[in-house]
């Protein structure tokens, strides 16, 4: 294919090259018939196919073909199951092939900086390692079927407010360790066919025109060879975009930018070499999409069953006092809440799927047990309705257990705008409180795409976080409530008690078209750990109907170089009476660091299934990145020599096993000393240490007999003082200072 692409490239006219730099319409690329260049179709995902059923319209708003609606990204990530995500990817690839779609526009790998981001339902996690691992296996699954993916939105697109104009201001280390790391492993190891760049500016430059982002980092540092496509309508300056490495502008622009490209080449503002690089990647994608196309069908019932099984693996049991769950079919159960019959199963916006089937929880529970139902509230309103509440209260009084379906309506969160708060509608909150006054056995089932405040939590016995469970989410909920499936989901994000607890609260969504990520590295659990602040539910948390015991942590080496690997082994046992699946989580802590680092960070995880009484050894392999931070000075990941704790357990707040290992750095970072270096730093150098001790000695002599400073205070004060300021105490002149600096920097 490569030789064919080169041959065609050499035959294209300037006008044809320019035309290939943008789409033909909303969903397809442009063909060049005379040279056999095909047009391919791309389509929205990420949790299902959203291909338009009729002729493509210029806004992409026509009805989409029926497709399997899998759980949304927020739900999928809560599975913490790489293999399961891969199966979802395979199914999505099959459906895309069936509809002649060459590239599925997903997954969304942006970090959940704030619970208010209106598109959080589409993204995976607040943690970059978990996010990138889930994205990687999604991509591998889809692309195993000969369908490309488009990991998005690259980069630092973490809000919907002014998403097309906001300038995201984030320092290099935070960018590398949090916001880019969410994409990095997925791009390097899964090799998505395309990367979709974001709308926003990043540190002053729009992402589609950002040479630093698209060429220096994505291509030069990470070795990416695929195509970069703009988010729809994101391109600001098409000529600058080509220079930056932005290949395909979507959707089509009616030829406006074709002319700009032609003029830029003719007047010398754009080189033919830069244009050819972009066109070559567009041609490669078009031919790859065509060559990988195949005749395919899929079994709708099998995909529906998969969607149900996936949903049941993802939903998170947050509370289960007195083991009120699972229910049994002999109990008298009241099902209350409009969401039980009118499910909210997916997010709003470009990822909205037309489901093949749709299961609601009410009908699925009715298949298992006889129930009483009351609507309880109006999903289209926020204020309580006295009649609906009264009916619900009567239903609750007459039954042993009350299952209340509540959550966030579609209008509360969607692509295009952010949430204003973390609260559920007032009528739903008051309904729960009213029901808890007449029945103590309240079970709450949530349907939401991001965290909510739960002022009613102490008044209920159980909470099942159903998130947005896809077309079969209702069936999954029924099976989980009645114990036909055992909950095994874990939160991929922290639930704060209230919005102001979130680290981004003071700087979201920004002012004057700028948003500054002043919390730096401390996103999600990293912040709550640093503040020793207890959230409502911690990152990685989730209950089961069985119990697990962690024992016997071992490392195969006590000391390694940063170029080596270490194997960590732990034993996990099911100590309960039913089969269950546990997510084993490994975190790493740098015990002593010269730079600011989070208290601990997720570096590995595994999901294991255990029968009652069964034990399994889980083995994790850690390498350099598990211990490293991004060193801005050397522009690379760096490990400081020292001791590291390895922590293993069931959540970020429950890590019963720990051991330590020493890691030795193989990279010596030469420190540069100047006249403004502080004495504390200079004392780390053998020559400098002698000079510093002389200075401290003279300071002690000077203040001897004085009440101003004792010896410790002198050293504390002196250690933070600059060399030039302390010259007098060292008896140095400018020549002495220059000679000393030459020795220190030799």
Explain what you see:
By secondary structure, the protein is α/β, with parallel strands linked by helices. The protein folds into four domains: 2-7 and 14-291, TIM Barrel, CATH 3.20.20.300; 300-529, Rossmann fold (3-Layer(aba) Sandwich); 548-664, Sandwich (Immunoglobulin-like), CATH 2.60.40; 679-744, no CATH class. 31% of the residues lie in helices and 18% in strands. The protein is built from 21 helices and 25 strands. The strands form six sheets. Strands 9-14-13-12-10-11 form a six-stranded mixed β-sheet. A five-stranded parallel β-sheet has the order 1-2-3-5-8. The protein has a five-stranded mixed β-sheet with strand order 17-25-24-19-20, with no helix packed on it. β24 and β25 form a beta hairpin. α1 (2-11) crosses α10 and α4 packs antiparallel against α11 (300-314). The longest helix has 20 residues, at 272-291. It is globular. The two termini are 54 Å apart. The mean pLDDT is 95.
Rg, rounded, reads 29 Å
Strand numbers in spatial order across the main sheet: 9-14-13-12-10-11
What is the SS-derived class? Answer: alpha/beta
Specify the biggest β-sheet: 6 strands, mixed
Name of the CATH first level of the largest domain: Alpha Beta
Question: Which oligomeric state applies?
Answer: single chain
Overall number of structural domains: 4
CATH homologous superfamily label of the largest domain: Glycoside hydrolase, family 3, N-terminal domain
CATH architectural arrangement of the largest domain: Alpha-Beta Barrel
The DSSP helix count reads 21
Give the amount of beta strand, in percent.
15-25%
Family: Belongs to the glycosyl hydrolase 3 family.
Pfam family, one: Glyco_hydro_3
GO biological process, one term: carbohydrate metabolic process
InterPro entries: Cellulose_deg_GH3 (IPR050288), Fn3-like (IPR026891), GH (IPR017853), Glyco_hydro_3_AS (IPR019800), Glyco_hydro_3_C (IPR002772), Glyco_hydro_3_C_sf (IPR036881), Glyco_hydro_3_N (IPR001764), Glyco_hydro_3_N_sf (IPR036962)
